[in-house]
C-alpha cells in the first residue's frame, strides 16, 4: 500500500512540474487561482480549508465568467453550510474557507493543482470537478495524503463505478454506481419472472466515457448470485458489419427479453433497423436500454434514437417509422434524482436562490464575471447534498475524537463515518458500506411524438440493504405496446415453436378444410344473410343505447284534447254494453297524457310520455352516477318493463321520456269497470307479468323499484303489463309526493322516510309489500284502500284547469260503463258473493299511512274481497305472506314466481288468445250494431241537412259543409220585402210574454208556409219584423217583383182568418214595403253565421215599410214598373200615392199595390170597417201633404 501511495505521489509531483511549465509557456492556457477567507466568525474558531477544482467552459478558455458550474451550482455550498449550522449538525465554532481554480478537464493539470492545494494551501478537503477523466486521478492523490474527497457530479461516476473502498478510501460519495445499477436490473428481471435474457453490448474503444464495459462487469457479478440466465451475449464494435443478420437470427431463436447497452447512441438506431428487418418487431419482444453513463436524469426528455439526425453519404434513409417500432417496445433503465427531489418540500425555490448565492461568500463572483442566469442546474442539488453529507461525516467524527485538524483532515475516518442517512434535496439519502445512494427507475415513452418525454413506470430503491420495488404508473400504461400483458421470457411453445402438442386439426387439416368448404358452399349464402341481419341489428342497438340524450327540438307536444272529445263522442255513439274494450284507450290516454307532471309527446314519430321535473334541475350538472344510470336504463329491454327512452336536458324543463302505453295504467283499467278485465285469465296473466318484470328489476343493477304502485304499471295495446317509472331516484326525490301515493309504501319505508316525504328509498322486500297491494287491487277490482273524497278533492286542487275538462269527460265515460258493469256483475254473481260496502267506514289517506307506519300486533292491511268467485284461494294466502310486517319474513320474488307456477299447474297463460276469443264472440253483435248505428247516423244527417237548409240557402249550406268559403255575391236586381205589425208594442203590453211568443209563432208559421209557395228566400225575422228577398241567391230574371207581390197579397189575405186567442175582437194588421234594386249578399261570422243582405235597396225597402199604412202594400216606382212589365194584361192593380218624403231619400213617387186579378185571393179583402180605413187613409194623405209642403218650403228657402 505504501508503494502505491508513493508512486502516485511521484506521478503527482511530475505532473505538477509539467503543469507549471505549461503555465509559463502557454499563456492561452493559464490557470487562475482564487482564495476566499472564511465566513465572518469570532476569534478562536476552527477554520476548515476546502479546495475546489472548477470546470471551465471549453468554448471560451480565457473568460472564467463563462464557467457554467460555478454560476449554476456554486451557490449550493454556502446554502448547505448554513443548513448544517441551522440544524446544529456542525457547531458554529467550525468555519470554512475556500480556494478554487478553473481547469479544463485536463488530467495532468488537475493532478498538479490538487498537489498544490494539499502542499501549499494545506487543504483539509478536496472537491474535484465533475469531469469523468479528472476525478479518478484526484481521488488517488487524496487517498495518498488521506485527504477527504467530496464527489458530487453525476458525470464522473463512470470511472469511479467499478472502484471499491480500498482504491478510494477517502471518498465521500452520494451518487450511484454500476454495481447497484446491475443489481437493480437483475431485480427487475426477477420481478417480471424473466429468468432468461440476451445481452448485446456495443463498446466504443475510442470513447473512454462509455460505461457499457463497466455495466457488463457489474451484471456478470450480479448474475453469479441469481437464478437469471443469459441465453445469448455478444459484443458489437461496428453495427455496419455483415454479422448483424446472424445476430438478429440468434436473438430471435434464443431470447425475448433483450438488454441493449450501446456506448455510441448513433449506432443504436442502425441496430434497431436490423432488428426490425429480422422480424424482432412484435409485441413478444422487450428491449431494455440502460443509461450506461447515468446522465439521463438530467434530461427527462427522451432523445429518440429512431429519429435520423445526420445525413450519411446516401442521404436520409426514410426509415424512422421502422426504427420507431422498436422504440415502442423499449424501456429505459436509468438513475434519476428528480424523482425523489420533486417529493421534497425544500426543492421548490432552490434553483432561484442558488444563483444569487454565487455572488456572495465564498465566491464573490459578480455578474460581470460569472454571467447572468435565472436558475441553477440539477448539479446544484447534488453539490448541496454532497456538502451536507460531508457535514454529517464531520459531526460523527467530532463526536468520537473532538474538533481538531487530525480529525477533520483524516479522510479515511470521515469516509468510515459517512453512513448516517439524512433528508437532502434529492430525497432521503442512505449511504451504505461503499458510500453510494441507490435509486433507479424504469421508464418508457409518454406519447408517440418525435420528441417524447419519459414516463416513469417503476422505482427500485435500496433501503437498509433491501431492494424495494414501487409501481409509479398503471400496468396498462406500461404494456400498452405489448397488448396489455407482460411478455414471457420464453414463448409458450418455445423459441422454435416445437414445445406445444400438435392438435388433431393440424394432423388432418386437409380433411377438415374439405368438409368445411363443402358445408360453406351449401349454406354460405344463408349464413351471410343471417350474419348481415344480426350485424345490422347489433349496430342499430348500439346506436340506440348511445342516444339517451334526447334533443328537445325532436319532441313534439301532442294536443289531443279537441280530437279526443270528438273521437270519444263518436265512440260512445257506437259502443254497446258489451263492446267497451277499446273505449278504455281514450279515457286512459287522456288521464295519462294531460296529468300534472306527465305530457304526451311524439318522438321520432312515436308517442311517448314525458315527465317534467322543473327547470331548477337544469342548473345542476348531471353527475357521473346519473349518466351511468341513464345508460343502464336505456339498455333495459324486457317484455314487462316499460322502455326508458332518455332525458332531455336542453329544454325549459328537465324531461324524462318513457314509452307510451295506449291503455294507460293498471289502476285506470281496474277503475274503468271494463268487462274484459274482470276475468280470471286477465288477472292471472297480469300477476304473472308483474312478477316477471319485478324479477328482472331485482336482478338488475337497480336492485329494486322503490315506488311500485298500480299507477306505475302500464298496459299497452296488446294488454301486456309493463312496470314503469323505475330508477332515477335522484330526480324523483326532488318532487313532493302526495299523501295518497304513500299508501303503497311498506311500513319500514314510511318509518325511515320521517318528515321528509321526498327522500324515499326502497328495498326488494318493500317492493314485495307493494306488489301485494297491487295484487289486492286486481283481486278486488277496486282500490286497495278506500279513502274518503277529501283526498281526491285535495289532489284535484293541485291539477291544472285544462286537466279538469278531460277528467270530467273521463268521469262521464266511467259512469256509463260502471252502470253496465254493475248490471253484469249482478247477473254473474252468485248468492253469497261479494259483500256490499255501504256500511264500511272510509278513512283519510293520512290516517291510513299513520296506522300502517305504527304497526302493532295486528297491523292495518287492506280487506280482500274477491270480485270473482273462481279465483284460486292460494292467491289470497300469497298476498298475506307478501305484506307481513317483518321484511325478513316476506318471500323473495323468486319464491313468488314459484308459487304462481304451482297455482297455474305449470300451464302457460296466453292473454292475447283469450282476448281474441272474447272479441270473436262480439264480432257478430258488433256488425249488427254498426249497421244500426249507420242508419241512425244517416237519419240524423238528413235531419241536420233539413235544419241547415232552413237556416241558409241550399247552395250556401252545401259549400259550408264542404269546408269551402262563401264569397260575397253581387246581384243586379232583386226585390226586398219588409213587414211589421201595427201597434205591436201596445198589443204586447196587453198580453203575457208566453202568449206573445205563441202568437208570433202561429203568425210566422203561417207566413213561412206562404214563403215556401213562392221563389222567395226568408232572410230573418226579428221581433215583429219579417224580411224576405226574391232574386237571390237563385236568380229568376225579373220575376222577383212578381213573387214578392204575390206573397205580400197572400200575407194580407191570411190575416182575415187569423185570430188572437186572448183578444178575439182584435185583428193583426201589417205594414208592408217592397223595393227593387241591386244588392250584395254573403255569409257573415263564424259562430252562428248568417246570410245577410247589404246595399241601398235594403234600406229603401225598409223605408217603404215604415212609411206604409196598416194592411197596405207600399211599393216603390221601380217595383211598380217591374210588376206591370211582367204581368199579363195588367193583372196587378196599383194606385199612385204621389210624391212622398222618404227619410234618407228625399221625395219619391210611390204606389199602393191593391191586388192581382189573375190569382185567387189576389185582391186585398174589404171585410174591415170601410169607414175606419178611409179615415186612416185621409189622415195619412193629409199628413203626407203637410210634410210635402214643409219640404218644398225648406228647399225654396
Largest sheet: 8 strands, mixed
- Work out the helicity level: 40-55%
Q: Please tally the helical runs, counting DSSP H or I stretches of 4 or more residues.
A: 41
Distance between the termini: 164 Å
Question: Would you kindly provide a written description of the structure presented here, covering whatever features stand out?
Answer:
With 1197 residues, the protein is α/β, with parallel strands linked by helices. It contains 41 helices and 31 strands. The strands form seven sheets. It has an eight-stranded mixed beta sheet, sandwiched between helices. Strands 24, 25, 26, 27, 28, 29, 30 and 31 form an eight-stranded mixed beta sheet that branches. A hairpin with a 3-residue loop joins strand 30 and strand 31 (1146-1156). Helix 3 (76-86) packs parallel to helix 15 and helix 37 packs across helix 38. It is elongated, with a radius of gyration of 57 Å. The model is unreliable at 1-31, 58-66, 562-594, 793-840 and 1165-1176 (pLDDT under 50).
Give a short synopsis of this structure.
By secondary structure, the protein is of the alpha/beta class. It is built from 41 helices and 31 strands. It is elongated, with a radius of gyration of 57 Å.
Keywords, separated by commas or semicolons:
1197 residues; alpha/beta; Rossmann fold; eight-stranded mixed beta sheet; elongated; transmembrane; glycoprotein
What does the secondary structure layout of this molecule look like, with pairings?
Elements: H1 2-25, E1 33-36, E2 46-55, H2 68-73, H3 76-86, E3 94-103, H4 107-121, E4 125-127, H5 134-144, E5 149-150, H6 157-160, E6 171-172, H7 178-191, E7 196-202, H8 212-223, E8 229-236, H9 244-254, E9 257-262, H10 265-277, E10 286-290, H11 320-328, E11 330-335, H12 338-341, H13 350-358, H14 367-370, H15 379-401, H16 405-408, H17 411-416, E12 422-424, E13 427-429, E14 439-445, E15 454-463, E16 466-471, H18 475-478, H19 504-507, H20 509-545, E17 555-557, H21 561-574, H22 583-593, E18 598-603, E19 606-612, H23 624-635, E20 644-648, E21 655-659, H24 666-671, H25 680-698, E22 713-715, E23 721-723, H26 729-732, H27 747-753, H28 764-780, H29 789-797, H30 801-828, H31 845-854, H32 873-882, H33 893-903, H34 911-951, H35 954-961, E24 969-981, H36 984-989, H37 993-1012, E25 1017-1022, E26 1025-1030, H38 1040-1054, E27 1070-1084, E28 1090-1094, H39 1096-1106, E29 1112-1116, H40 1117-1125, E30 1132-1142, E31 1146-1156, H41 1170-1196
Parallel strand pairs: 2-3, 2-4, 5-6, 7-8, 7-9, 9-10, 10-11, 27-29
Antiparallel strand pairs: 1-3, 11-14, 12-13, 14-15, 15-16, 17-18, 18-19, 19-21, 20-21, 22-23, 24-26, 24-27, 25-26, 27-28, 29-31, 30-31
Helix pairs in contact: 1-4, 1-5, 3-15, 4-5, 7-8, 10-11, 21-22, 22-30, 25-28, 25-33, 27-31, 28-32, 37-38
Biased composition (Low complexity): 831-842
Enzyme class: lyase
Organism: Heterodera schachtii
Amino acid at each position: 500500500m505504501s508503494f502505491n501511495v508513493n508512486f502516485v505521489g511521484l506521478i503527482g509531483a511530475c505532473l505538477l512540474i509539467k503543469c507549471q511549465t505549461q503555465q509559463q509557456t502557454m499563456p492561452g492556457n493559464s490557470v487562475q487561482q482564487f482564495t476566499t477567507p472564511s465566513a465572518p466568525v469570532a476569534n478562536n474558531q476552527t477554520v476548515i480549508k476546502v479546495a475546489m477544482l472548477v470546470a471551465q467552459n471549453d468554448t471560451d478558455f480565457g473568460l472564467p465568467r463563462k464557467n457554467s458550474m460555478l454560476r449554476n451550482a456554486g451557490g449550493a455550498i454556502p446554502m448547505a453550510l448554513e443548513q448544517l449550522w441551522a440544524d446544529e449538525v456542525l457547531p458554529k465554532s467550525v468555519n470554512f474557507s475556500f480556494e478554487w481554480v478553473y481547469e479544463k478537464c485536463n488530467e495532468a493539470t488537475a493532478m498538479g493543482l490538487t498537489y498544490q492545494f494539499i502542499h501549499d494551501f494545506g487543504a483539509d478537503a478536496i472537491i474535484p470537478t465533475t469531469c469523468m477523466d479528472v476525478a479518478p486521478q484526484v481521488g488517488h492523490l487524496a487517498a495518498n495524503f488521506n485527504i477527504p474527497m467530496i464527489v458530487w457530479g453525476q458525470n464522473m461516476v463512470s470511472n469511479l463505478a467499478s472502484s471499491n473502498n480500498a482504491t478510494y478510501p477517502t471518498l465521500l460519495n452520494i451518487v450511484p454506481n454500476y454495481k447497484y445499477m446491475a443489481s437493480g436490473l437483475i431485480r427487475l428481471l426477477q420481478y417480471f419472472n424473466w429468468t432468461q435474457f440476451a445481452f448485446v453490448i456495443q463498446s466504443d474503444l475510442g470513447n473512454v466515457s462509455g460505461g457499457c464495459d463497466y455495466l457488463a462487469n457489474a451484471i456478470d457479478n450480479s448474475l453469479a448470485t441469481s437464478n437469471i440466465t443469459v441465453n445469448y451475449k455478444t459484443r458489437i464494435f461496428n453495427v455496419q458489419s455483415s454479422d448483424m443478420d446472424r445476430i438478429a437470427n440468434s436473438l430471435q431463436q434464443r431470447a425475448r427479453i433483450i438488454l441493449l447497452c450501446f456506448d455510441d447512441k448513433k449506432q443504436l438506431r442502425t441496430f434497431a433497423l436490423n432488428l426490425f428487418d429480422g422480424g424482432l418487431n412484435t409485441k413478444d419482444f422487450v428491449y431494455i436500454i440502460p443509461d450506461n453513463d447515468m446522465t439521463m436524469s438530467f434530461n427527462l426528455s427522451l432523445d429518440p434514437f429512431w429519429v435520423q439526425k445526420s445525413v450519411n453519404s446516401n442521404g436520409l434513409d426514410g426509415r424512422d417509422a421502422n426504427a420507431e417500432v422498436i422504440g415502442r417496445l423499449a424501456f429505459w433503465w436509468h438513475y434519476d434524482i428528480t424523482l425523489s427531489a420533486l417529493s421534497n418540500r425544500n426543492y421548490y425555490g432552490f434553483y432561484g436562490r442558488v444563483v444569487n448565492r454565487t455572488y456572495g461568500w465564498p465566491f464573490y463572483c459578480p455578474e460581470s464575471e460569472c454571467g447572468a442566469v435565472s436558475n441553477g442546474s440539477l448539479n446544484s442539488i447534488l453539490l448541496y447534498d454532497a456538502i451536507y453529507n460531508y457535514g454529517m461525516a464531520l459531526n460523527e467524527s467530532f463526536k468520537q475524537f473532538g474538533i481538531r485538524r487530525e480529525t477533520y483532515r483524516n479522510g479515511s475516518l470521515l469516509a468510515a463515518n459517512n453512513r448516517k442517512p439524512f433528508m437532502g434535496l434529492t430525497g432521503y439519502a442512505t449511504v451504505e458500506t461503499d458510500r453510494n445512494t441507490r435509486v433507479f427507475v424504469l421508464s418508457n415513452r409518454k406519447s408517440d411524438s418525435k420528441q417524447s418525454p419519459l414516463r416513469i413506470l417503476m422505482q427500485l430503491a435500496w433501503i437498509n440493504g433491501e431492494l424495494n420495488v414501487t409501481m409509479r404508473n398503471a400496468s396498462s400504461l406500461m404494456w400498452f405496446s405489448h397488448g396489455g400483458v407482460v411478455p414471457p421470457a420464453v414463448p409458450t411453445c418455445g423459441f422454435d415453436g416445437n414445445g406445444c402438442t400438435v392438435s388433431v386439426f393440424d394432423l388432418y387439416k386437409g380433411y377438415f378444410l374439405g368438409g368445411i368448404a363443402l358445408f360453406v358452399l351449401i349454406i354460405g349464402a344463408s349464413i351471410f344473410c343471417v350474419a348481415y341481419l344480426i350485424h345490422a341489428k347489433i349496430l342499430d342497438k348500439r346506436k340506440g343505447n348511445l342516444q339517451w340524450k334526447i334533443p328537445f327540438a325532436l319532441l313534439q307536444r301532442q294536443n289531443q284534447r279537441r280530437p279526443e272529445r270528438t273521437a270519444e263522442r263518436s265512440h260512445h255513439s257506437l259502443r254497446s254494453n258489451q263492446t267497451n274494450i277499446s273505449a278504455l284507450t281514450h279515457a286512459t290516454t287522456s288521464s295519462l297524457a294531460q296529468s300534472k307532471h306527465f305530457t304526451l309527446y311524439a318522438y321520432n314519430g312515436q308517442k311517448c310520455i314525458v315527465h317534467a321535473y322543473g327547470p331548477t334541475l337544469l342548473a345542476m350538472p348531471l353527475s357521473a352516477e346519473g349518466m351511468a344510470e341513464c345508460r343502464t336504463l336505456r339498455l333495459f329491454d324486457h317484455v314487462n318493463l316499460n322502455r326508458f327512452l332518455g332525458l332531455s336536458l336542453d329544454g325549459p324543463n328537465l324531461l324524462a321520456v318513457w314509452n307510451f302505453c295506449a291503455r294507460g295504467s293498471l289502476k285506470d283499467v281496474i277503475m274503468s269497470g271494463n268487462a274484459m278485465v274482470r276475468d280470471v285469465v286477465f288477472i292471472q296473466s297480469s300477476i304473472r307479468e308483474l312478477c316477471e318484470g319485478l324479477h328482472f328489476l331485482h336482478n338488475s343493477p337497480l336492485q329494486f323499484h322503490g315506488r311500485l304502485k298500480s299507477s306505475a304499471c302500464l298496459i299497452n295495446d296488446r294488454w301486456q303489463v309493463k312496470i314503469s317509472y323505475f330508477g332515477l331516484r335522484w330526480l324523483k326525490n326532488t318532487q313532493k309526493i302526495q299523501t295518497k301515493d304513500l299508501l303503497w309504501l311498506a311500513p319500514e319505508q314510511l318509518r325511515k322516510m320521517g318528515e321528509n316525504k321526498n327522500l324515499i328509498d326502497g328495498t326488494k322486500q318493500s317492493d314485495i309489500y307493494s306488489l301485494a297491494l297491487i295484487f289486492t287491487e286486481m283481486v278486488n277490482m277496486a282500490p286497495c284502500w278506500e279513502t274518503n273524497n277529501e283526498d281526491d278533492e285535495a289532489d284535484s286542487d293541485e291539477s291544472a284547469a285544462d286537466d279538469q275538462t278531460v277528467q270530467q269527460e273521463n268521469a262521464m265515460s266511467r259512469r256509463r260503463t260502471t252502470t253496465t258493469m254493475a248490471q253484469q256483475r249482478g247477473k254473474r254473481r252468485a248468492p253469497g258473493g261479494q259483500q256490499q260496502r255501504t256500511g264500511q267506514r272510509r278513512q283519510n289517506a293520512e290516517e291510513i299511512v299513520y296506522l300502517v307506519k305504527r304497526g302493532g300486533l295486528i297491523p292495518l292491511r287492506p280487506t280482500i274481497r274477491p270480485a270473482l268467485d273462481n279465483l284460486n284461494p292460494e292467491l289470497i294466502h300469497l298476498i298475506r305472506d307478501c305484506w307481513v310486517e317483518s321484511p325478513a319474513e316476506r318471500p323473495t320474488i323468486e319464491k313468488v314466481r314459484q308459487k304462481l307456477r304451482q297455482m297455474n299447474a305449470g300451464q302457460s297463460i296466453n292473454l292475447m288468445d283469450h282476448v281474441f276469443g272474447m272479441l270473436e264472440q262480439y264480432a257478430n253483435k258488433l256488425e249488427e250494431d254498426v249497421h244500426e248505428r249507420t242508419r241512425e247516423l244517416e237519419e240524423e244527417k238528413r235531419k241536420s241537412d233539413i235544419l241547415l237548409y232552413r237556416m241558409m240557402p241550399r247552395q250556401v249550406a252545401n259549400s259550408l259543409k264542404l269546408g269551402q268559403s262563401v264569397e260575397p255575391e253581387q246581384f243586379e236586381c232583386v226585390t226586398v220585402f219588409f213587414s211589421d205589425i201595427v201597434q205591436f208594442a201596445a198589443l204586447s203590453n196587453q198580453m203575457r210574454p208566453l202568449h206573445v211568443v205563441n202568437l208570433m209563432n202561429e203568425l210566422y208559421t203561417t207566413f213561412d208556409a206562404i214563403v215556401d209557395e213562392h221563389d222567395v228566400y226568408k232572410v230573418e225575422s226579428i221581433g215583429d219584423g219579417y224580411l224576405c228577398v226574391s232574386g237571390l241567391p237563385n236568380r229568376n230574371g225579373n220575376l222577383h217583383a212578381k213573387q214578392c207581390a204575390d206573397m205580400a197579397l197572400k200575407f194580407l189575405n191570411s190575416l182575415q182568418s187569423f185570430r188572437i186567442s186572448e183578444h178575439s175582437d182584435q185583428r193583426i194588421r201589417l205594414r208592408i214595403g217592397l223595393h227593387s234594386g241591386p244588392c250584395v249578399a254573403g255569409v257573415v261570422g263564424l259562430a252562428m253565421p248568417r246570410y245577410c243582405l247589404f246595399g241601398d235597396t235594403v234600406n229603401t225597402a225598409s223605408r217603404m215599410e215604415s212609411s206604409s199604412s196598416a194592411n197596405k202594400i207600399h211599393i216603390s216606382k221601380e217595383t211598380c214598373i217591374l210588376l206591370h212589365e211582367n204581368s199579363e194584361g195588367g193583372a196587378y192593380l196599383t194606385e199612385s200615392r204621389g210624391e212622398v218624403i222618404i227619410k234618407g231619400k228625399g221625395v219619391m213617387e210611390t204606389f199602393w199595390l191593391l191586388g192581382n186579378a189573375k190569382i185567387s185571393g189576389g185582391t186585398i179583402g174589404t171585410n174591415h170597417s170601410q169607414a175606419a180605413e178611409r179615415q186612416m187613409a185621409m189622415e195619412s194623405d193629409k199628413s203626407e201633404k203637410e210634410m210635402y209642403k214643409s219640404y218644398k218650403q225648406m228647399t225654396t228657402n
